[in-house]
Design goal:
This protein has 115 residues and is an all-beta fold. Strands 2, 4, 5, 6, 9, 10 and 11 form a 7-stranded mixed sheet that branches. A hairpin with a 4-residue loop joins strand 7 and strand 8. The radius of gyration is 13 Å and the shape is globular. The termini are far apart.
Amino acid sequence: EVQLQASGGGLVQAGGSLRLSCLATGFSFDDYGIGWFRQAPGKEREGVSCIFTDGSTTYANSVKGRFTIASDCAKNTVYLQMNNLKPEDTAVYYCNAVRGPYEIWGQGTEVTVSS
């Protein structure tokens, strides 16, 4: 079964760090762009960061300098290292894999940042 499994969320104080993991099972993400998205209560889902097949990365302005996306092909896993977390980072985080017209979404992992 083709799946993306996101994990690593939790409760952290402002200024703290978390590392989210997105594990791909049933397929190899080598040919996919992998992205992290988030949705805060009452808000629309927004893009946070993406890593493309050539290794290039993009970040939302709100997380630049604080978040880092990285992939481990051997583990078929993409990570999102989140440092200096802020209360406004509180959201459910989702990972997504895209290759052409094919798109796979994982279940979310909840991140709560207390002030």
